[in-house]
């Protein structure tokens, strides 16, 4: 069950956007999805297990795709997997996920809704308002024996172990718990529940979810009579690409860790810097996927290299930061970047780091969590000796230099470490 995009252009505005922006990978029935979207509002869903209190850039393809569908008039359902998070999705994992408490799940879910609310409209009174649901509301009410008899009988172990997620774990002889093995049944039941109670006919997600999504379609087909009210063949799924950078790395993974959407975990300035520092080869792709600039304008921005491409990166960084953090934060981050990297002295918007120590050697400072100028002391020492670190605008070549409040330029010390790190460092004062 798979269908590539058709040779002819789709009729629906939503799938036209999907293709031209790079959101589409494969679908269970592209033509049927296109026809449904052309005919009227389609209710679709995407699920997130609340295993942390912040989404990251790796989730942005799905989020931007949801935003595009909602802007085209369709209705998103965001499932926060309070129930499935208690089981743990084995997809893309070489070991079992840590199980969370109910309190942790509830706290994380609330944080995720705030972040998604920056991209989607909830509670505005429009027919296509986004809805957030917690699958714990129906999964935790299931009676186990009844669930096995009603749902489990439609799944075969033979077919489940053929799914890449499970097969990879088994081929590598990595333990796969029975708890995790149930995940596909629960995700499939989610789709059935939403189909029955919310009129949801489309699920989408990353390509690693293909097996689970197809299983949901099959469950709906088996358990839904063709009664004229809910036709089982109206349920479909599609996947979005799992992006990698031009050098083959997973999108959103950096040497400094995940690129969080929570402004407390990653400042707007650092978020801006992530985008403006992207590989030249990725600029056009990122502008299409992560901004809403017209495709023709993107082509014009990226047709030349050199200084023109740097301007395109700045536009990418500003647009992406504006969507997540708002216009004011994007303007401030842009101005701060121009000051910090252009030799200016106004560092008021550059991230700050407050030390508890009254004195600290330079090599230790640039490797602190929260400064993260370099991955290791060895790398830091070499770069310092090569002049890649500046204090208050001046190169410092001595890794062992002891820094104190006396080294501050006014309130703080301006630290530049390599090409990307700019930090205001505050030392405690007596």
Fraction in helix = 40-55%
Taking all residues together, what is the mean pLDDT? Answer: 85
N-C termini distance: 69 Å
Shape: globular
Radius of gyration over all CA atoms, rounded: 25 Å
Low-confidence stretches: 92-97
State the oligomer: single chain
Describe what is shown at a glance.
The protein is α/β, with parallel strands linked by helices and 430 residues long. The chain is 41% helix and 14% strand.
Description:
By secondary structure, this protein is of the alpha/beta class. Helix content is 41%, strand content 14%. It has 18 helices and 15 strands. It has helices spanning 13-21, 30-39, 60-71, 102-116, 136-139, 144-150, 157-161, 164-171, 178-181, 183-198, 210-223, 268-276, 283-290, 295-302, 307-325, 327-342, 362-365, 377-385, and strands at residues 26-27, 43-48, 75-80, 131-134, 200-206, 236-240, 253-254, 257-258, 352-354, 359-361, 389-391, 394-395, 402-404, 413-417, 421-426. The strands form four sheets. It has a six-stranded mixed sheet, with helices on both faces. It has a five-stranded mixed sheet with strand order 9-15-14-11-12. A hairpin with a 2-residue loop joins β7 (253-254) and β8 (257-258). α10 (183-198) crosses α11 (210-223) and α13 (283-290) packs antiparallel against α14 (295-302). The relative contact order is 0.09.
């Amino acid at each position: 069950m798979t269908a590539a995009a058709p040779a002819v252009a789709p009729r629906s505005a939503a799938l036209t956007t999907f293709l031209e922006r790079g959101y589409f990978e494969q679908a269970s029935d592209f033509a049927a999805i296109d026809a449904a979207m052309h005919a009227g509002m389609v209710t679709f869903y995407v699920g997130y297990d609340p295993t942390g209190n912040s989404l990251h850039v790796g989730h942005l393809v799905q989020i931007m795709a949801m935003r595009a569908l909602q802007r085209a008039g369709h209705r998103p359902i965001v499932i926060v997997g309070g129930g499935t998070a208690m089981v743990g999705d084995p997809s893309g994992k070489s070991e079992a996920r840590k199980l969370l408490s109910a309190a942790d799940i509830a706290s994380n879910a609330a944080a995720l809704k705030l972040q998604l609310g920056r991209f989607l409209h909830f509670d505005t009174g429009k027919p296509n308002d986004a809805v957030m649901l917690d699958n714990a509301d129906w999964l935790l009410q299931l009676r186990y024996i009844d669930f096995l008899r009603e749902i489990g009988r439609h799944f075969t172990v033979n077919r489940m172990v053929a799914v890449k997620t499970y097969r990879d774990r088994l081929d590598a002889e990595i333990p796969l718990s029975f708890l995790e093995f149930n995940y596909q049944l629960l995700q499939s039941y989610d789709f059935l529940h939403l189909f029955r109670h919310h009129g949801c006919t489309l699920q989408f997600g990353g390509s690693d979810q293909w097996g689970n999504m197809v299983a949901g379609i099959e469950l709906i087909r088996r358990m839904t009579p063709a009664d004229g009210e809910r036709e089982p063949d109206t349920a479909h799924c599609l996947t979005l690409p799992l992006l990698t950078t031009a050098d083959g790395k997973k999108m959103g993974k950096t040497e400094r860790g995940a690129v969080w959407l929570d402004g407390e975990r990653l400042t707007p300035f650092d978020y801006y810097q992530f985008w403006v520092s992207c590989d030249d080869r990725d600029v056009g792709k990122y502008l299409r996927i992560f901004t809403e600039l017209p495709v023709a304008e993107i082509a014009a921005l990226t047709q030349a290299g050199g200084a023109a491409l740097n301007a395109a990166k700045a536009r990418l960084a500003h647009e992406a930061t504006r969507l997540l953090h708002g216009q004011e934060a994007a303007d401030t981050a842009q101005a701060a970047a121009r000051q910090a990297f252009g030799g200016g002295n106004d560092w008021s918007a550059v991230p700050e780091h407050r030390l508890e120590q009254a004195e600290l050697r330079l090599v230790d400072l640039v490797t602190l969590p929260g400064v993260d100028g370099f991955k290791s002391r060895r790398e830091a020492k070499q770069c310092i000796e090569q002049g890649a670190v500046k204090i208050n605008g001046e190169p410092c070549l001595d890794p062992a230099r002891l820094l104190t409040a006396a080294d501050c330029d006014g309130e703080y010390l301006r630290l530049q470490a390599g090409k990307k790190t700019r930090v205001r460092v505050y030392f405690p004062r007596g």
